[in-house]
Amino acid sequence: MNKNSMTKIYSLNKIIFIIIGILGIVLLTKHVGIDIKVLILLLLILFTINVFILYLKIKLYEDKFNLGIVNNSNNIINITKDENFLKHIQNYIISNKKENCVMACFDLCRLKLINDIYGYELGDEVLDNISSNLKSYFGEEAIYGKLKSDVFILIIKLEDREQKIPYLVNLIRNKIVTLSQIDSFKMNINIEASIGIYRFNSDKIDIKKAMDNADMARVKSKGLKHIEYVEFDSVMEEEIQSLMKIEQDLFLAIKNKEFVIHYQPKVDSITGKIIGSEALIRWIHPSLGMVGPNKFIPIAERSGLINNIGRWLIQEVFVTIDNWISEGINVLPVSINLSRVELYKNDLVDFFKSMFNTYNVPKELIEIEVTETTALRDVKFISERLYEIKSLGIDISLDDFGVGNSNFINLKGIPLDVIKIDRSLILDIVTNTKTKFMVKAIVNLSQDLNLKVICEGVEDMEQVKVLNEMGCNLIQGYIFFRPLDESSYKRILTDGSYVNLEDSFLDKYMAVEEAEE
Ligand code: C2E
Ligand code: CA
Ligand code: CA
Asked: What whole-number distance in Å separates Cα of residue 389 and Cα of residue 368?
């Protein structure tokens, strides 16, 4: 049923109600000489017709709602994954032959920037504009709408896909994702689209999977320079399978005692004294060997398992420190990485309290590291949580500083003791004067604010020299130590916690992880 017939039904419905009203009044006032029985019969018939029309109206609304094509306030069609809508897409694909259909999934690369600089109203306007462009270019020829936040989906029939996909991509980039209709948009931000394409093939149609696949291709296309779009392929499929296997295996990893902790010393590069270490988790997978945290932590975060893994690690660090102390070792502070998901868990502070109550671990020996991106994502909540943690006597480091939209002003409310400058800023510090000035500014400002500065990922002596010149002496990096297994780190603590800055002493320790990687 189209919009015109809908409007006609609504009008008819209104008119009949008006007639019923008039007849009712006439009946009551008994002004006309119609037989009362005929009048009542007429009223009943009209009433029944109207109830039926009302039913049709409701049904029509329900259908639209189920199909997910009820527009939201911004005139943007929302694509839902409910059964009716999936069926609607499936019917479209069947009736247009699946070998001719593609699904494009795209988003805006710079919507966040637009929101941040010009406010959400303009961001909404941009999204609204995309919706109307989709409508005017594809009308009823395709199915399209918003899948989530700024991600759009378009399902369309393209005969001769090989030739036409580049045209479609071009259309999305230049005609759909465009600012031309936005009057208020007078500035110079180039909004580009990231585009993922999925071609339906001879396999059984699975719309949800197709959406996930197109979405994955979209994510893959991000950050690829000079590449206009990415098509989902079998390699990506394998990657997904391997991620799913990791997710399944993670469930058993704690029970099977497959995690170990390595400790990477932090060094005062002037005196050679080790000042503490960072606890870094490793997963010894029964068939894959050592799996690095960058591979499994994001998966654990998505599934919520990070809480179990994180709690295991915290307790293990407490047990280890307690053991070392009872062996008479002079233990140095250990920092523990906390992910965003862990910080949101309400009993985190109580858990730390119970650890301090259970184990003989002085509070100065435990520190935590929270990334800059985590801290800035929800400053109010995170800073409140960090104040609670700090009240236990735990020092707080801001990790990976320099990766996000670093801004000291935004960090004002967050209780911090240490800034850890990210490896990406250290990488070209010797050769790039701009980087050097940036790091120098961070070091100076941190010192003014009474924060300790540690530089991460330092790999050669030239970098150490430059950092020392700007007053940054605390170093964590391969130049001094790779992350060490527990017994190697314990040996260093027992030996007196110094690094010989001069000679090959380093190699002895640097070898530990190299051999395992
Ligand atoms: P991160 O917290 O920034 O940890 C430092 C990473 O840099 C470690 O990688 C370390 O091995 C590496 N690294 C240190 N020095 C150098 C260097 O000189 N050169 C290079 N190329 N790399 C260096 P790793 O251990 O693979 O950890 C990666 C990330 O995984 C960590 O980054 C942290 O975000 C996360 N992670 C590790 N353990 C845990 C954990 O127990 N809990 C949570 N939530 N995250 C963890
Ligand atoms: Ca860290
Ligand atoms: Ca870091």
From this structure: 9
**Closest atom of ligand 1 to CA, residue 262:** 25
193-199/334-337 β-pairing: unpaired
Structure tokens at 11: 């009008």
Any atom of ligand 1 within 6 Å of the Cβ of 176:
no
Ligand nearest to the CA of 457: 1
Percent of the chain with pLDDT over 70: 86
Instruction: Say if ligand 1 is within 6 A of residue 292 CB.
Output: yes
Give tens-digit pLDDT for 67-88. Answer: 444 444 456 778 888 888 899 9
Q: Under 8 Å CB-to-CB from 440, ≥6 apart: which residues?
A: 470
- Band of pLDDT at residue 516, cut at 50, 70 and 90: very low
Q: pLDDT tens-digit profile of 19-49? A: 877 777 777 766 666 777 777 788 788 888 8
Tell me the CA–centroid distance for residue 402 and ligand 2, in Å: 13
Q: Atom of ligand 1 at shortest distance to CA of 342? A: 44
Return left, alpha or beta for 108; rule: phi > 0 is left, psi -120 to 50 is alpha, else beta. beta
Per residue, the 3-state secondary structure of 218-287, as one string, reads HHHHCCCCCCCCEECCHHHHHHHHHHHHHHHHHHHHCCCCCEEEEEEEEEECCCCEEEEEEEEEEEEECC
Cα(280) to ligand 1 centroid in Å equals: 6
Residue 215 CA, ligand 2 centroid: distance in Å = 30
Whose atoms come closest to the Cα of 400: which ligand? 3
